[in-house]
Amino acid sequence: MISSIQSSSILYSVLLIGLFIPKASTSFLTCTSDRPGSQTHRILYVPSKFMPKTKEEQKWAAVLCCIYTHVEKYDNDGDNSYLETYDGSEYSVGKGGFLTTAKKVKKDICNMSMGSQDCSSKQKCMEDALEDPKTNPPSQNSTTGGTSPLLQRCMKKANRIHRRQKKSTVEAYKTSIKECKPLSGADKKTCFVSKKKIKNDELKRIEGKKWAKEKKCSQKHGRHF
Q1: What pLDDT tens digit does each residue of the chain (225 aa) get?
Q2: Going edge to edge, which strands form the sheet with 80-84?
Q3: By 3-state DSSP, what share of the chain in percent is helix, strand and coil, each rounded to 5?
């Protein structure tokens, strides 16, 4: 009877301790590596069905984290994954499962100007990630001032969306003013003023949405220190 109770106690202790052992399965979710300077990190958007699940896939998620590339899922029935680079631009990295995609992305990054520097300085980190599936991804820079990683990611996402919308608005304005060029005199001036007002109104609206999103980020993650 005592033996049975002891066995149950030991089993319970093992299960309880197991809950606190760092698992590779969470590595791609907890990646908070940020490159020093204004260019913080890249994002690899992967269809939900291709998110890393196996031990090998989780190792490669950690490898990408070493070179400041976070893995995030997006709900899509397609097979394409997309890489968002430091400047906010995106490009398709093709179809396929996570391993294929991660290896291609690493190769692409290491052939980039800043990426080659990242791969060179983080070679040991990548080797360790492939050796040990429980390797924790790089922690956040000490320059973050104690800000919650979740808050930072939320803010950065808001800023990325803001940059894209702002860029799209400016491009739309440049296209729209072409309609004014064939005009002359007062009509031409009125046209330009009208197009500029539309642009400025849209930029103000975008700024308002950014502010609202940042406020929401602070309310949701501001206390996670």
Answers
A1: 444 444 444 343 333 333 222 233 333 457 888 888 777 889 898 888 888 989 899 999 999 999 999 998 876 667 888 998 888 788 889 888 999 999 999 999 999 989 999 999 999 999 988 886 554 444 433 333 444 556 766 777 777 777 778 878 888 888 898 999 899 989 988 998 998 899 889 888 888 887 888 788 777 766 433
A2: 69-74, 42-47, 80-84, 90-95
A3: 60, 10, 30
Dihedral sign, Cα of residue 38, residue 39, residue 41, residue 43:
positive
Q: Which of 80, 19, 78, 23 is nearest to 53 (CA)?
A: 23
Cα–Cα distance measured from residue 19 to residue 65, given in angstroms and rounded to the nearest whole number: 23
What tokens were used for 110? Answer: 């290491």
Tokens of 124: 């040991």
> Taking a C-beta distance cutoff of 8 angstroms, is the pair 58, 29 a contact?
no
Query: How is 138-168 classified by DSSP, letter by letter?
Result: PPPPGGGTT--HHHHHHHHHHHHHHHHHHHH
Tokens 């072409």 belong to which residue? 178
DSSP H or E stretch at residue 82: strand 80-84
The pTM of the full predicted model, rounded to 2 decimals, is: 0.52
Region of residue 57 (phi > 0: left; psi between -120 and 50: alpha; otherwise: beta): alpha
